[in-house]
Amino acid sequence: MLEGLVAALKRRQAILFAGAGVSMTVGLPSWSTLIEHIADELEIDLSDFKGADLNYLTLAEYYRLKQGSIGPLRSWMDRNWTIPDETLKKSRVHELICKLDFPIIYTSNFDRNLETSFDLRGKDYVKIVNAKDIARVRPGVAQIVKYHGDFDDDGSIVIAETDYLERLSFESPLDIKFRSDALGKTILFIGYSMTDLNIRFLMHRLWKTWAGSGYERDRPQSYVFMLRPNPVEQAVLEQWGLQVLMEKDCPPEQALERFLTKLSEAVEKKEECP
């Protein structure tokens, strides 16, 4: 099942799209911790919302309304989501991402863990947060595209409900870049919950673009790595042209590392073949 992905990596025609699950492998908190912090800072009793819908997007929007900006929340996340270099050096997941040498990595994470991992391993890259950064792309140098923003730029952060709704137009400079990058390349999504509406919308738009082109048969195969089997999700994702990959009979906390290890070994094996 990895053959197509391995071949795309060998041709440098594969894109990695990395989500929160990648950062959680080195100890970053879940979104529930962010919700608890916002509630504590705004003196909201979360027990009042039991049984009611309250997601972090709406809560972050309320935070911006009350505080005037997202800046203080961004500063708190930056302080609390910074991982020590020694931890990142030991991270097998981050080591394998660097080793697999994707020419382009998109990430919806705000943290600097991917960039720091590249720095620690002496790998060159260009970080892309806005349209200005796109002009800095250099041939043969990996691109790390901060799709939902970066801690160094408050205005780039996509965290509140309005931010997400505005991105649904799919017309920002990074969206246009993604469409251009993705149309002719294989994409591997890792570290995502398939309940992430923004990512699901992105997958769906990509499928619709190919479906409307009349050349859907020529679309490169793309993949989603899932921690647990879910036949409902699998059927929907496969309808959108995404092949689901899993590590069966593997604890979820070990699954991503095992998968990336197998992928790296398969690439190395292909390199050894004449």
CATH superfamily of the largest domain: TPP-binding domain
State the end-to-end distance.
21 Å
**How many helical stretches?**
14
What's the overall geometry?
globular
In N-to-C order, the SSE pattern is: HEHHHHHHEHEHEHHEHEHEH
- Major β-sheet profile: 7 strands, parallel
Count of DSSP E strands? 7
How much strand? Answer: 5-15%
Low-confidence stretches: none
CA radius of gyration is 19 Å
CATH architecture of the largest domain: 3-Layer(aba) Sandwich
Q: How many structural domains can be distinguished in the coordinates?
A: 2
In CATH, the topology of the largest domain is named Rossmann fold
Provide mean pLDDT, rounded.
89
Q: What are the main properties of this structure?
A:
alpha/beta, 2 domains, 274 residues, 7 strands, Rossmann fold, 7-stranded parallel sheet, globular, 14 helices
Your description of this structure?
The protein is globular, with a radius of gyration of 19 Å. The two termini are 21 Å apart. α13 links the parallel β6 and β7. Helix content is 50%, strand content 11%. α1 packs across α14. It contains 14 helices and seven strands. It has 274 residues and is α/β, with parallel strands linked by helices. The model has no long low-confidence stretch (mean pLDDT 89). The protein folds into two domains: 214 residues, TPP-binding domain (Rossmann fold, 3-Layer(aba) Sandwich), CATH 3.40.50; 50 residues, no CATH class. The chain has a seven-stranded parallel β-sheet with strand order 3-4-2-1-5-6-7, sandwiched between helices.
